[in-house]
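Teaching soon. Invent one.


***
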Amino acid sequence: MNATLQALHSYWAYLVFIILVIATINALFKLFGGKEFSAFDFRISLFTLIVSHLQLLIGVVLFFAGDYLGIIKETGMGEVMKNASLRDKIIEHPTTMIIAIALITIGYSKHKKKLTSKPKFKMLAIFYTLALVLIIAKIPWQTWLA
């Protein structure tokens, strides 16, 4: 089951990344282009929210299904923090991705409260871009490009 979850988490990440890039570019172009907010814009931002939350759920299940808490218990948090690989897998990657998904959620929620197109795109552009930067920073590239 752990291998299946890991594969699902890895492949679903490609979808999250592609959709987030599309939604971010869409929001930026339409913000600076002065375009009107359409049903497509709503759908792409909602789809980004949904796929990112599903990725978070898969990641949380994978985290607790894995033996990460056992590793912390056995070696101690000090040793985990000294080991770059363990620190990335147990602390940095999950924390950064949770923050990124929180930013996506905040951006989506804030854009719904705006009444005109420019503020809607502004909220999506700011929060989705920040989330994209965090995700790019903590993607395990050695795994992705292998």
Residues 24 and 104 are 10 Å apart (CA to CA). The chain has a mean pLDDT of 91.
